[in-house]
Amino acid sequence: MEVPLTDLSGPWRARQFIADATTLSSAANPNQPLRISGMVVRTAATSEPAPDHFCAVCVKCPHEHCDSDFVRDPKSLPAEVLQEIAEPLQDPVYLCPCHNSTFRARDGERLGGPAPRGLYLFRVTSVTGTVVTIGEVEEDALLFL
To answer: CA torsion sign, 92 to 93 to 94 to 98?
Structure first.
């Protein structure tokens, strides 16, 4: 999967993508085609972009598989979400609108809510002068999505 670098021109610029995959042979529904909704975010401001300057996640919340929303301004989060997180937020987050699970945009880490873990990560494999290349998703996502 390739995402144009121009769509991620500055820090905290985000772009959605869809990845095709196949469930694992050990999944409840083995070897089935799967479309995974993802989001890639530029996490660093630099003129020399590298794979570690981007984070790509599956936006399906690991709680009940609702799509999480990218929230650029964490100050706009509901008061009850901010209270549960109990740490000052400066960077964007993902928020699941179903049950308020919240995840750090920098690395998909769970910050609060009923989700049992952070968001599943895609591997950012390379960055050229024109595209960010996104590779496979964490293997567990192919078991549980």
So the answer is: negative
What domain range is 83 assigned to? 69-117
Which tens digits make up the pLDDT trace of 27-43? 888 888 989 999 999 99
Output the pTM of the full model.
0.91
80 & 54 share domain: no
Total domains in the fold of the chain: 2
Q: Do the beta carbons of residue 42 and residue 13 sit within 8 Å?
A: yes
pLDDT score of 91: 94
pLDDT digits (tens, 9 = 90+) for 84-97: 998 889 999 999 99
Furthest CA-CA distance within the chain: 44
Cβ contacts of residue 92 below 8 Å, gap of 6+?
A: 12, 14, 41, 70, 71, 72, 73, 74, 105
| Parallel/antiparallel/unpaired status of strands 14-22 and 102-104 | unpaired
